[in-house]
C-alpha cells in the first residue's frame, strides 16, 4: 500500500474513531483557539507493544479534558512520532488508534505556562484480539525474533522455561553450545561474553555456571544474541554477547507470582520455589524476587590415556562416577526506580545469591605397560564442599535532556564474589603384581578460599544531530581485585602443608574505556553506523608464595562498521566489521594446582595472554523473516585448554594456553516455518569450518624449541536446531527443541557428533492465573560428550554423560491488583560494567 493511501486511511480512521466526532462534527484546530493565550506543544512516540517498532500513520487525537471532544488530530510519521503545536495551556487527553490495534487513551496531559512543552515519551499499542461470539482467534507468539543487530529469544511464558535454570535456557538458544569444560560457544566459536541485564558477568566458566544454575528461568524475559556488538559495548568477547534480560514490571498497581518446582534425573531429586512482587504507583516502580532451591546433578565417564614412555607404552584406563547437590538460603533481588520528573529518573538495585555445593567424585583406575594386565589399581574418592556467595549493587540515573531524543545515563556498580571451599582426597593404591595385592593409601586436603571485589562506573550520552543522524559517546572505568589463597596439605598423618602445590595469588586489574558511535542514513536505502572504542588495561598478578609478579599495561583500539542496505521491501543486506578482545579470566591466571586424582590435575598460567579477533560478516534478510549470515573470523593467540603430558610419571596436567591462531568461516541460516495453523517452528542451521594452528612438540609443549612441529587441527562442523511451538486442543501448549551437531574441534581436541531432544507441555487454569508445566530434557539420553586428542603416540580419550536427562513439574500462580494497562516506563540501561 502506498504511503499516500495509508495517510488517507489514517485520517479517515481519525474522523471515524475519535470520540464525539463524525463527518460533520470537527472542532476547530487548537491553533485557531485562544489566540491571546500562551501556546505550548505536546509530542511523543507510538510503538508496537510486542516488537517495540514504531507505528506509522496511526491516528492521534487531542481531546479536551473531561469530554470526548477532539481539539485537534494528526498521524504518526515513519519513526512513530507525532506533535501538536500552538495549543493553549490546559488539561488534555490523548487518544491513539490504528487498524489492528486496541485504542488507547492517555489521561491528564498538562500544558502550563511554567512547562509549555510536554514530552509524553513512548506509548505502546497492543494488537487487538478478535472475538466473534465464542469463537476465539488465537496466534502463536514467536519465540525467536530477528532485529537489526541481534536475535531475541523470548523466554517468558514458555513451557521449556518452567522449572528450569538460566543456564538451561541459555544452552538451548539458537547457535549456542556448551562444551566439555562448561565454556559457551556461539555459531561454532568460543569466546562468548555473558551479560545479565546489560551487566557483564566476568566469571570463570565454573563460577558462571554456578551463578546461572542458581537463577530460575521463570524470572527471565528474553535472551539477546548479539553476534557483532557495536563500539558502545565492552570489547570483551571475541564471538559476541549473550545478554539475559530479566522481567521488568510494566503494569500499574501490584502484581506478581509464586511458583514451586520438583525435578529428578532418576538418580537424585531437586526442587525450587519462590516468587516475585512488583509495585508501580505514582512515581515509584519497585520489584522484589526471592528463590529457594536445591539443584542436583550426576556424572559418569570413562577416560583412556596412552603415554609413550621410554620403557614402552603406559596404559591408563579410568571409570568415574560423581554426583553433586547445590543448595542455599533464599536468593533475592530488590530494586526501585523513582521519576524525579517526566524526563529524569534515578534507581537502585541489589541482589544476593548464596549456595553451597557438595560434590562426590569416585574413580577407579588401572595402569600398566600391558592394557590387558595392568600393574596398579587406584581407587580415588574425592569429596568437595564449596560455598559460593555474590552480592550485586547498582545505582543509576536516566535522563531525557530535550524533546529531540537527547539522553544521558550513568551507572555505579559494586559487586562482591567469594568462594570458600575445601576438599578431601582419599587415594588407595593396590599392587596387582604382588601375590597378596597389598594396598597403600595417600590422603590429601585442600583449602581454596578466593574472592573478587569489582567496582565500575560508566556514563553514556546520545544526541540526534538531525532527522537522520545520531551521535553517541561514553566512558567507563572499572577495577577488579581478586585474592585467592589456596592451600594444599598432606593428610595421611594429620595436616602437613605441601609448599609445592600451595599458592597465594593476588590479581589487580584496571580498565579505562571510551567510545564514540555515529549513525546516519543515506537516502532511503542505506543506514550506516561507525564506531571506535579505546580500552586501556593495567593489571598486576602476584604469586605471594613464589614471589613472582606479572605486570601488564596495554592500550587497544576497537573499530566497528555496520552498513545496512535496503534493496527492496523483501530483501535487505547488511555488512559489518569489528575487532574484539578476550582477556584471561582470573582463575586461569592463578598457578595453583587443582587436584582431581593422583595422575590428573589442572593449573593456571600466569603467562596467559589475551586473544584478539577480527570479524567480517554479511547478513541477508529475505521476506523480513529469513536470515542468512556469512562470517569470517581470524583469532590471534587463541586461549584454549591444553593437556601437558608428564609421560614418565604417567600424569596429565591441564592448563589454559595460547594457541597460535584460529580461522573460522561460518554460515548461519534462520528460518521460521509455519507447519500448520497452530504449529510454528524456528529453525537454525549452522555450517562452520574451524582451523587451529600451533607449534608443539611430542609432549604437547606449545612453542617449544625441542622437536617442534606445526600442528593443524581442523574440522567442518554442522549444527541444526529446530524449536517447535504447538497449540493443542483444550488449551495445551507444547514446545519441542531438537538439536543435531556434527564433529567439531577445540584447540587440540576433536569432539564427536551428538544430538538431543527436549520437550515441554503447559496448561493454564483459573482464567490463566495458574500455570502447570511439565518438561523433559534429553529424552533419548543422547547428550553425551566424547572428545579426544592425540599428540604423537600419546592419546587422551574421554566419554562423559552428565545426566541432563531429567523431568520437572512446575506450578506457578500469578496475581495482580490494579490497573492492567501498559504505561510509559523509564528506559532500561543498555549496558553496565561487568559483574
From TrEMBL:
Signal peptide (residue range): 1-24
The Outer membrane protein beta-barrel domain, residue ranges: 400-813
Highest taxon of source: Bacteria
Gene Ontology cellular component annotations, sorted alphabetically: cell outer membrane
Keywords, ordered alphabetically: Cell outer membrane, Membrane, Receptor, Signal
Main location: membrane
Entries under InterPro entries matching the protein: Beta-barrel_TonB_sf (IPR036942), CarboxyPept-like_regulatory (IPR008969), OMP_b-brl_3 (IPR041700), Plug_dom_sf (IPR037066)
Chain ranges passing through the membrane: none
Record's keyword annotation contains Signal: yes
Statement: the UniProt record of this protein carries the keyword Signal: yes
Gene3D superfamilies (UniProt xref): Carboxypeptidase-like, regulatory domain (2.60.40.1120), TonB-dependent receptor, beta-barrel domain (2.40.170.20), TonB-dependent receptor, plug domain (2.170.130.10)
Entry's localization field: Cell outer membrane
PANTHER family with a match to the protein in the record: PLUG DOMAIN-CONTAINING PROTEIN, TONB-DEPENDENT RECEPTOR-LIKE BETA-BARREL DOMAIN-CONTAINING PROTEIN
Protein name per its UniProtKB record: TonB-dependent receptor
Amino acid at each position: 500500500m502506498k504511503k499516500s493511501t495509508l495517510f488517507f486511511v489514517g485520517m479517515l480512521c481519525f474522523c471515524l474513531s475519535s470520540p464525539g466526532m463524525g463527518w460533520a462534527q470537527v472542532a476547530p484546530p487548537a491553533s485557531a483557539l485562544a489566540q491571546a493565550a500562551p501556546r505550548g506543544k505536546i509530542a511523543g512516540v507510538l510503538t508496537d507493544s510486542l516488537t517495540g517498532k514504531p507505528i506509522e500513520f496511526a491516528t492521534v487525537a487531542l481531546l479536551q479534558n473531561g469530554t470526548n471532544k477532539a481539539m485537534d488530530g494528526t498521524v504518526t510519521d515513519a519513526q512513530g512520532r507525532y506533535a501538536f503545536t500552538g495549543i493553549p495551556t490546559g488539561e488534555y487527553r490523548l487518544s491513539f488508534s490504528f487498524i489492528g490495534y486496541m485504542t488507547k487513551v492517555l489521561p491528564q496531559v498538562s500544558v502550563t505556562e511554567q512547562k509549555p512543552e510536554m514530552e509524553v515519551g513512548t506509548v505502546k499499542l497492543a494488537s487487538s484480539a478478535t472475538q466473534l461470539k465464542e469463537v476465539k482467534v488465537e496466534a502463536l507468539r514467536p519465540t525467536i525474533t530477528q532485529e537489526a543487530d541481534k536475535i531475541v529469544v523470548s523466554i517468558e511464558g514458555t513451557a521449556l522455561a518452567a522449572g528450569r535454570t538460566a543456564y538451561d535456557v541459555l544452552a538451548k538458544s539458537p547457535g549456542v553450545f556448551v562444551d566439555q569444560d562448561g565454556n559457551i560457544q556461539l555459531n561454532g566459536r568460543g569466546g562468548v561474553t555473558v551479560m545479565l541485564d546489560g551487566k557483564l558477568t566476568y566469571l570463570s566458566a565454573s563460577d558462571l555456571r554456578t551463578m546461572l544454575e542458581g537463577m530460575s528461568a521463570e524470572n527471565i524475559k528474553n535472551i539477546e544474541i548479539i553476534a557483532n556488538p557495536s563500539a558502545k559495548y565492552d570489547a570483551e568477547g571475541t564471538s559476541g554477547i549473550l545478554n539475559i534480560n530479566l522481567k521488568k514490571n510494566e503494569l500499574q498497581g501490584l502484581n506478581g507470582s509464586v511458583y514451586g518446582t520438583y525435578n529428578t534425573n532418576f538418580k537424585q531429586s531437586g526442587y525450587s520455589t519462590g516468587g516475585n512482587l512488583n509495585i508501580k504507583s505514582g512515581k515509584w516502580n519497585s520489584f522484589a524476587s526471592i528463590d529457594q532451591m536445591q539443584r542436583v546433578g550426576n556424572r559418569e565417564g570413562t577416560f583412556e590415556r596412552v603415554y609413550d614412555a621410554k620403557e614402552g607404552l603406559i596404559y591408563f584406563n579410568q571409570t568415574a562416577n560423581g554426583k553433586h547437590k547445590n543448595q542455599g538460603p533464599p536468593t533475592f533481588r530488590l530494586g526501585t526506580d523513582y521519576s524525579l520528573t517526566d524526563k529524569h529518573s534515578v534507581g537502585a538495585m541489589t541482589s544476593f545469591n548464596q549456595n553451597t555445593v557438595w560434590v562426590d567424585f569416585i574413580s577407579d583406575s588401572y595402569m600398566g605397560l600391558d592394557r590387558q594386565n595392568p600393574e596398579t589399581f587406584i581407587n580415588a574418592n574425592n569429596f568437595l564442599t564449596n560455598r559460593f556467595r555474590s552480592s550485586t549493587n547498582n545505582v543509576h540515573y536516566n535522563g531525557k535532556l530535550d524533546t529531540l531524543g537527547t539522553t544521558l545515563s550513568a551507572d555505579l556498580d559494586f559487586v562482591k564474589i567469594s568462594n570458600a571451599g575445601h576438599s578431601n582426597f582419599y587415594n588407595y593404591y593396590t599392587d596387582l603384581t604382588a601375590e597378596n595385592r597389598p594396598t597403600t593409601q595417600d590422603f590429601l586436603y585442600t583449602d581454596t578460599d578466593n574472592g573478587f571485589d569489582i567496582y565500575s562506573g560508566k556514563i553514556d550520552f546520545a544526541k540526534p544531530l538531525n532527522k537522520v543522524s545520531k551521535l553517541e559517546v561514553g566512558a567507563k572505568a572499572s577495577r577488579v581485585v581478586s585474592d585467592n589463597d589456596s592451600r594444599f596439605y598432606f593428610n595421611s598423618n594429620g595436616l602437613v602443608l605441601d609448599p609445592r602445590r600451595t599458592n597465594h595469588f593476588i590479581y589487580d586489574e584496571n580498565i579505562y574505556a571510551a567510545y564514540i558511535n555515529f549513525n546516519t542514513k543515506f537516502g532511503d536505502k542505506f543506514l550506516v553506523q561507525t564506531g571506535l572504542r579505546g580500552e586501556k588495561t593495567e593489571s598486576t598478578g602476584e604469586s605471594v608464595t613464589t614471589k613472582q609478579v606479572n605486570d601488564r599495561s596495554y592500550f587497544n583500539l576497537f573499530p566497528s562498521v555496520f552498513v545496512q542496505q535496503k534493496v527492496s521491501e523483501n530483501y535487505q543486506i547488511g555488512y559489518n566489521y569489528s575487532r574484539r578482545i578476550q582477556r584471561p579470566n582470573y582463575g586461569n591466571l592463578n598457578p595453583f594446582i587443582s587436584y582431581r586424582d593422583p595422575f590428573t590435575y589442572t593449573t593456571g598460567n600466569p603467562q596467559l595472554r589475551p586473544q584478539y579477533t577480527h570479524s567480517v560478516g554479511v547478513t541477508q534478510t529475505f521476506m523480513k523473516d529469513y536470515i542468512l549470515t556469512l562470517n569470517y573470523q581470524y583469532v590471534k593467540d587463541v586461549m584454549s585448554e591444553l593437556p601437558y603430558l608428564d609421560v614418565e610419571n604417567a600424569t596429565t596436567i591441564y592448563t589454559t594456553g595460547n594457541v597460535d591462531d584460529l580461522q573460522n568461516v561460518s554460515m548461519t541460516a534462520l528460518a521460521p516455518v509455519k507447519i500448520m495453523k497452530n504449529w510454528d517452528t524456528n529453525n537454525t542451521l549452522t555450517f562452520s569450518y574451524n582451523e587451529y594452528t600451533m607449534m608443539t612438540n611430542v609432549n604437547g609443549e606449545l612453542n617449544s624449541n625441542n622437536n617442534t612441529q606445526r600442528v593443524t587441527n581442523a574440522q567442518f562442523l554442522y549444527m541444526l536446531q529446530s524449536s517447535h511451538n504447538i497449540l493443542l486442543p483444550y488449551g495445551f501448549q507444547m514446545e519441542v527443541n531438537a538439536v543435531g551437531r556434527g564433529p567439531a574441534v577445540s584447540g587440540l581436541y576433536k569432539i564427536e557428533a551428538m544430538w538431543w531432544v527436549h520437550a515441554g507441555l503447559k496448561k493454564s487454569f483459573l482464567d490463566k492465573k495458574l500455570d502447570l508445566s511439565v518438561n523433559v530434557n534429553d529424552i533419548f539420553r543422547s547428550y553425551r560428550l566424547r572428545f579426544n586428542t592425540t599428540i604423537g603416540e600419546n592419546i587422551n580419550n574421554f566419554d562423559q554423560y552428565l545426566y541432563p536427562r531429567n523431568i520437572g513439574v512446575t506450578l506457578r500462580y500469578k496475581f495482580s491488583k490494579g490497573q492492567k494497562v501498559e504505561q510509559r516506563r523509564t528506559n532500561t540501561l543498555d549496558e553496565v560494567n561487568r559483574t
